[in-house]
Task: inverse folding
């Protein structure tokens, strides 16, 4: 508790189904709440092939952790089989870890690096504290239609346990080179917003990175989404008593949403995973 004291934002990343991740994560989350941090848990579930007992332990741990976290992101290991079943085991897990790590890194950079349109810690806390299961994902493209391709790459992440349909709150952060246009920005935000709840709290930001010549990166944090896995875990377990967070001043900010569109094309499999699936570990 002393170590976490003063923290505003706490990420907990763990594998469920064993002893350490399943047992320690809820305890750490409870401590985070007590010291006033917004708690985001990012967890992986075991392969079905690892047996019913391990799955049962993981689901019980998921229910407990979900009840003491502000929001939770679930990565189901079975989905790795869908994208990398021919790869050596260590390469398959490397891809999974990298996708999650890049998304978390993007969230950290969101609040520490200045942008043209800034998203600050208060914005991030407001979205996270909206609660419920979350989608945390990252997409990138340098193609001819890079804006929409970056959105497709983010939303097509095959490791996601939930989609953004009906999400209650979202942060959209766009990072690009100096050639990025206002029209491209509008395409990205409109496409994402159109899938959310009509009353969703949407905050967007933009940052110029001179090193991203011709490329666009999209970071997306959506809370309050539907997650079949989390719902199943909670149905099987009585929720733990809610842990009150230490009181901190709240900063209310109006949502910065752009006009909506009514349709979005079908999202393909994540481009990055497709391109990397044949690479050796050194190239990754």
Result:
């Amino acid at each position: 508790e002393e170590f976490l004291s003063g923290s505003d934002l706490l990420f907990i990343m763990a594998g469920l189904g064993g002893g350490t991740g399943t047992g320690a994560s809820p305890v750490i989350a409870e401590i985070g709440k007590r010291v006033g941090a917004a708690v985001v848990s990012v967890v992986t579930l075991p392969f079905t092939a690892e047996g019913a007992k391990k799955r049962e332990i993981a689901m019980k741990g998921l229910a407990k952790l979900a009840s003491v976290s502000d929001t939770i992101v679930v990565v189901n290991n079975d989905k790795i089989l869908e994208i990398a079943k021919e790869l050596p085991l260590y390469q398959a897990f490397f891809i999974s870890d990298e996708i999650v790590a890049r998304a978390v890194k993007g969230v950290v950079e969101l609040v520490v690096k200045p942008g043209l349109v800034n998203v600050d810690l208060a914005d991030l806390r407001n979205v996270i504290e909206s609660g419920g299961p979350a989608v945390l994902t990252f997409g990138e493209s340098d193609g001819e239609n890079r804006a929409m391709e970056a959105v497709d790459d983010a939303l097509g992440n095959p490791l996601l346990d939930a989609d953004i349909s009906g999400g209650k709150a979202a942060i959209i952060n766009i990072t690009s080179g100096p050639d990025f246009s206002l029209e491209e920005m509008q395409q990205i935000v409109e496409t994402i917003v159109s899938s959310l709840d009509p009353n969703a709290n949407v905050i967007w930001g933009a940052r110029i990175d001179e090193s991203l010549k011709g490329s666009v990166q999209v970071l997306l944090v959506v809370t309050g989404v539907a997650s079949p896995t989390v719902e199943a875990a909670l149905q099987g377990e009585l929720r733990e008593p809610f842990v009150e967070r230490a009181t901190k001043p709240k900063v209310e900010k109006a949502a910065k949403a752009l006009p909506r569109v009514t349709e979005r094309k079908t999202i393909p499999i994540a481009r990055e995973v497709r391109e990397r699936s044949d690479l050796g570990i050194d190239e990754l």
